[in-house]
Amino acid sequence: MPTEIYLVKVGMNMTEGVVEEWYITDGGTVEKGELLYRLETEKVNLDVDAETSGTVRHLVAEGVTMKPGDVVGYIYEAGEEVPDVLPGAPSGTTAETAAGTATDAPPAAAAAAAPASPAPAGASVDEGGRLLSSPAARRLARELDVDITALAGSGPGGRIVEADVQSAADAGEAAGRPAPSSPIARKLARELGVDLNTVKGTGPGGRITKEDVEAAAAAPAPAAAAPPLTGAARQDETLPIRGMRKTIAARMHDSLQSMAQLTMDMDVVMDDAVRLRNQLVEEWQDDGVRPTYTDLVIRAVAKALEKHPRMNMIFGETEMTLLGAINVGMAVAMDEGLIVPVVQNANLLSMRQLVQESSRLAEASRSNSLTIDDLQGGTFTVSALGMFGVDAFTPIINAPQVGILGVNRIREDVAWEGNTPVKQQRMRLSLTWDHRAVDGAPAAQFLGTVRDLLESPFRLLV
Question: Which segments of the chain belong to CATH 2.40.50.100?
Answer without folding.
Answer: 3-218
